[in-house]
Specification:
single chain, 7 strands
Length: 163
C-alpha cells in the first residue's frame, strides 16, 4: 500500500529541516511517541538504527527505524534549488514501511513538505487492517505533519494540547 501526503509550512525551509532533524523536538509534535532511542549511530544520520515505541489508545507499536537517506548532510546554507531528503525504513511486528520526505522551498518564507509512504504487512491481522482501512495510515501521517506544522509555526506541543 502506498500513500502520499503534503503540507505547506509558513517557515523558511532551512528552519523547517533543522526543527525536523532535532531529536529533542520529536515528543512535541510526534503524537503517541513513547520512545525514540538510537541503537547504533547518531540520531538522524544515514545508517543509524533506532528503537521506536509508539502508543495509540491501548495499542503499542514497537519497531526499529533505519535512516536510509539524508541529503544534504549539512542542514545549514542549503542552496535554494536543492531538495532536502529524509528517508527511513521502519520494521515492526507484522509490518514494514518506507517513508520518503522531500522538503522544497515553495517561497523564501514557506516550505512544501511531501511525504511518500509504502507499507507492507506480513501477518494476517495487519493485512486485514491494510485492506479494510487503508485510509487510517494516510490519515495518521497527515496528522503527524499537521502536528509538526502547529509546533513549528506556533510552538504547539501535542503533549499539552486539549482533545
Amino acid at each position: 500500500m502506498k500513500t502520499t501526503n503534503s503540507i505547506e509550512i509558513a517557515l523558511p525551509r532551512e528552519r523547517v529541516v533543522q526543527l525536523l532533524a532535532d531529536p529533542a523536538n520529536l515528543p512535541m509534535w510526534l503524537r503517541g511517541m513513547v520512545l525514540h532511542e538510537p541503537l547504533s549511530g547518531m540520531h538522524g544520520q544515514v545508517g543509524t538504527k533506532s528503537r521506536v515505541v509508539m502508543q495509540s489508545g491501548n495499542q503499542t507499536f514497537e519497531g526499529t527505524e533505519t535512516i536510509t537517506r539524508r541529503e544534504p548532510a549539512d542542514l545549514h546554507g542549503i542552496p535554494r534549488e536543492t531538495v532536502v531528503h529524509f528517508d527511513r525504513e521502519l520494521v515492526g511486528q507484522g509490518m514494514w514501511s518506507d517513508v520518503r520526505d522531500r522538503l522544497t522551498e515553495a517561497t523564501p518564507e514557506t516550505t512544501l513538505w511531501v511525504q511518500d509512504s509504502e507499507y507492507r504487512f506480513s501477518n494476517l491481522l495487519m493485512r486485514l487492517v491494510g485492506l479494510l482501512m487503508p485510509g487510517v495510515f494516510r490519515k495518521q501521517s497527515q496528522q503527524h505533519m499537521e502536528d509538526f506544522k502547529a509546533f513549528a509555526e506556533q510552538g504547539k506541543d501535542v503533549r499539552t494540547a486539549k482533545p
